[in-house]
Amino acid sequence: MAITWIFHDTHKKEYRSPFGAVPAYESITLRLGLKTTSKIESVILRLWKNNDGVENQEMHFEKSQEAGSFYTTAITTSVVGLYWYYFVVITGGKVYYYGNNNERLGGLGLLREQVPPPFQITVYQDFAVPAWFTEGVMYQIFVDRFYNGNEQGQVNNPKKGSLIHGRWDDTPMYIKEPETGAILRWNFFGGNLEGIIKKLPYLKELGISVIYLNPIFEAPSNHKYDTADYKKIDPMFGTNEIFRELCVKARKLKIRIILDGVFSHTGSDSIYFNMEGNYPELGAYQSPSSPYYSWYRFKKHPDEYESWWGIGTLPNVNELDPSYQKYMLEDKDSVVRYWMRMGVAGWRLDVADELPDEFIKKMRLVLKKANPESILIGEVWEDASNKISYGENRQYLWGEELDSVMNYPFRNILLDFILGRISAQQMHRRVMSLFENYPPPHFYNMMNLIGSHDVPRVLTLLGEAPAEQMIHPKDKEKFRLNPRQRRLGLARLKLAALFQMCFPGVPCIYYGDEAGLEGYADPYNRGTYPWGREETKLVSFYKKIIALRNNYTALQKGRWVSAMAEGDVYAFFRVADEEVFLMLFNRNKEKEQKITLELAMEYRGVWKEVFPQEKEPEGQQDKQRSLKIVLQPLEGKVFMRG
Question: Is 229 marked active-site?
Answer without folding.
Answer: no
